[in-house]
Amino acid sequence: NSRGTASLLKDSISFTEFSAAGLFEGHDLLRRGFTSVKNELLPSHPLELTEKNFQLNQDKTNFATLRNIQGIHAPLKLQMEFRAVKQVQRLPFLHSSNMALDILRGNDECIGFEDILNDPSQSEVMGEPHMMMEHKLGLL
């Protein structure tokens, strides 16, 4: 029974090991950029992790306060709105300002560090649009 044998082989042997790239796949510079040892190191300062998770911690605190004041429905509604707004994005090669998310969080009236030094027009992350869309759709 060739069908039974194929299903046994499919379950026991991973096909990625026998693919053209396989285990010896090189680093894809076009999609992942240059490798850096600095990215693999632990945070250099104890406050670095706190700063990276600042928005998440602030959201948790705001949801807890909102739950204590208005009940469970208020943070649930806000979390559903956050989730809906995060799903709407531009194409992968275009920078998105996430203005709707900033409005929901109340950050639309604040000027922060990232507003001044994170200018998308000077970004070096721009890639080829066709290749980035094919990667997102799983065609590559």
UniProtKB/TrEMBL annotation:
<protein>
    <submittedName>
        <fullName>POMP protein</fullName>
    </submittedName>
</protein>
<dbReference type="GO" id="GO:0005634">
    <property type="term" value="C:nucleus"/>
</dbReference>
<keyword id="KW-0143">Chaperone</keyword>
<dbReference type="GO" id="GO:0005737">
    <property type="term" value="C:cytoplasm"/>
</dbReference>
<dbReference type="InterPro" id="IPR008012">
    <property type="entry name" value="Ump1"/>
</dbReference>
<dbReference type="GO" id="GO:0043248">
    <property type="term" value="P:proteasome assembly"/>
</dbReference>
<dbReference type="Pfam" id="PF05348">
    <property type="entry name" value="UMP1"/>
</dbReference>
<comment type="similarity">
    <text>Belongs to the POMP/UMP1 family.</text>
</comment>
